[in-house]
Amino acid sequence: MLFRQLFDRESATYTYLLADPASREAALIDTVIENVDRDLELVRELGLTLRYVLDTHVHADHVTGAGTIRTRTGAQTVSGRGGAPCVDVVVGHGDRLKIGAIAIEVLATPGHTNDSMSYLVGDRVFTGDALLVRAAGRTDFQNGDPGQLYDSITKVLFVLPDDTLVYPAHDYRGRTVTTIAEEKRWNARIAGRSREEFIAVMNGLHLPEPARIREAVPANLACGVVVASPQG
Ligand SMILES: [Fe+2]
Question: At CB < 8 A and 24+ separation, what contacts does 165-168 make?
Answer without folding.
Answer: 165/123, 165/124, 165/125, 166/124, 166/125, 166/127, 166/131, 166/133, 167/5, 167/14, 167/16, 167/124, 167/125, 167/126, 167/127, 168/14, 168/127, 168/128, 168/129, 168/131, 168/132, 168/133
